[in-house]
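Structure tokens please, single chain.
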Amino acid sequence: MDHLIEKTKERSTAFQGRLLRLDVDTVTLPDGKEGVREYIRHPGGVGVVALTEEGEVLLVKQYRYPYGEILTEIPAGKRDKGEEPLVTGMRELEEETGYRAANYTPLGCLYPTPGCCDEVVYLYLATGLTATEAHPDEDEFLDVERCPLDEMVTRVMAGEITDAKTQIGILKAKRLLDSQKEGV
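Here you go.
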């Protein structure tokens, strides 16, 4: 597989913001020619499929500026530098929904946009929920809602849920829970 690897020759930063950095690299392609790669450096994030005892998923609705739409998503957020993914997930679940979970099961990770960004999103299934108090970030405005897990699967498959981490998190949680039932 080494015959597919591109090697970095030179790197420059075209933009440095609060959240993102845009790098432009000159690379040597597998055929020996030179190419340019522009990509976004992102600290990564965590999404949590929080499931109530009644089988409902906690969701957040929020306006997403790049799309100009209000999206329905699982609670999620950006990792702080050096922060373990589970710590991020626990923090974001409580901040956004006002719930803590007794149990977290890893659902793996995903690369949401591998063609232009190095972001990694970790996913967890959270159960054993206890109500606390939500305290979203000062620039975060959202509504919390509940939806049965089976209905969320239907909404994902119907194309109503467009957020990638939510789609994957819901489908992986459903598959995990179904396999646990079959194994009993």
